[in-house]
Amino acid sequence: MRMYDLILKKRKGEALTKEEIYFFIEGYTKGSIPDYQVSALLMAVYFQKMNKEETVYLTEAMMHSGEVIDLSSIEGIKVDKHSTGGVGDKTTIALAPIAAACGIPVAKMSGRGLGHTGGTIDKLESIPGFCVEMTKETFIQNVNVMKLAIAGQTANLTPADKKLYALRDVTATVDNISLIASSIMSKKLASGADAIVLDVKTGSGAFMQDIDEAFLLAKEMVDIGNRVGRETVAIVTDMNQPLGYAIGNSLEVKEAVQLLKGEGPKDLEKLCITLGAHMLLLGKKVGTEYEGKRMAKAAIDSGEALNVLKNFVKQQNGQIDCIENLDLLPKTKEVYSLKADKRGYIHKIQGDIVGASALTLGAGRDTKDSKIDLSVGILLNKKMGDYVETGEVLAYIHYNDENRRDLAIEQLLKAYEIEDEAPEHRPLIFGVVTKNGIQRI
């Protein structure tokens, strides 16, 4: 078998076999197939697409390119949740304790973020002492005892995907549904969960800005998961403005804890309850979404989810005092008030621009070696649809460096559009995708 023949075959629009896909993934992972040939194949895939069988084969090949985590010694149905990423998306920090409080084992492997803020791991490390490094035995024990553990991804998890993604990033072949879906699902499947809930974001602050494209991606990933024996559901949700009010690592942790204390933003609470309901459905704890929502809400109202978070933080060596007193979390030296220069209704808070502003402040990484400032970020004071007077505060910029602050102010002002008339309402949740098809709301 020759890589040249695979490139030619896909260039002609023909489907690659399972054996051919495994051949190229194994060869590329081991280094026997060079970047330039894989680049040519990726470009052929980009233009000629992949069918469902090819996409499943590609996912499985990447999944098996490294370690596949065995979680069979954890009792119960393990349900994982994955978000395609957005601005202010701190959902896991609140959702995981909610699901665990309802009896769902959450054994989560998370990565560090590239982009406007850190990933879930970075955000949790805003809690002094919090540790994500542990043995597999400790990880499994924590889930069996407390129903929750979050650890950093192992270095040998889907190495083929790491190499392929880096190549896609520099060859303009990132935005292909099959390549995106197989990349996400290979990591989720290798992480060992029995069932998966996907939060597929759409809007200005998401990778998939078009709603129809978001549904296509959701359907592709749901089909992959179910075809390899993992029950998978996707919720398509709004990211046309930041989720909640906080953007930045310690600020987002604070907001997630506030939610579990019954004081969080309504959009974040609604999303967590909806995703939690579907985790409970897949975990066979409830029979309907309505029952799942009631159980998830009860876990917040009773304080049980907050107790789970505290125990989880303590178990992973974090300072629990920071959960009880949020003022102990990392804080900046200064806070700047960004004010409206006109009156009217907020029509737009461009999510990607807000994210870029947070990155400018130091909340995220330009490269994997960049150092994150866990204290900086943006705290919105108004959201889309709100009315503001001239001089009223739109957002608070938490900063440690005046030069970075000035650049962030210039960026952030461009994120806002203020008009005389109130904007049309945009829903938080657009629909649900299951093995039975797409249900738009």
UniProtKB/TrEMBL annotation:
**EC number of this enzyme:** 2.4.2.2
GO CC terms = cytosol
Q: InterPro entries this protein is in?
A: Glycosyl_Trfase_fam3, Glycosyl_Trfase_fam3_N_dom, Glycosyl_Trfase_fam3_N_dom_sf, Nuc_phospho_transferase, PYNP-like_C_sf, PYNP_C, Pyrmidine_PPas_bac/euk, Pyrmidine_PPase_CS
Task: From the UniProt record, list the coiled-coil ranges.
Answer: none
**The keyword Metal-binding belongs to this UniProt entry's keyword annotation:** yes
| Catalytic activity entry | thymidine + phosphate = 2-deoxy-alpha-D-ribose 1-phosphate + thymine; uridine + phosphate = alpha-D-ribose 1-phosphate + uracil; 2'-deoxyuridine + phosphate = 2-deoxy-alpha-D-ribose 1-phosphate + uracil
Q: Output the GO biological process annotations, alphabetical, semicolon-separated.
A: pyrimidine nucleobase metabolic process; pyrimidine nucleoside metabolic process
Instruction: Print the keywords alphabetically.
Output: Glycosyltransferase, Metal-binding, Transferase
The lineage's top-level taxon is Bacteria
Which cofactor is recorded for it?
K(+)
GO molecular function list: 1,4-alpha-oligoglucan phosphorylase activity; metal ion binding; thymidine phosphorylase activity
Segments forming domain Pyrimidine nucleoside phosphorylase C-terminal: 345-419
* UniProt xrefs under NCBIfam families: PRK05820.1, PRK06078.1, Y_phosphoryl
- Its quaternary structure? Homodimer.
Family annotation (PANTHER family): THYMIDINE PHOSPHORYLASE
State the protein's purpose. Answer: Catalyzes phosphorolysis of the pyrimidine nucleosides uridine, thymidine and 2'-deoxyuridine with the formation of the corresponding pyrimidine base and ribose-1-phosphate.
> Which family does the record assign?
Belongs to the thymidine/pyrimidine-nucleoside phosphorylase family.
Q: Mind telling me what this protein is named?
A: Pyrimidine-nucleoside phosphorylase
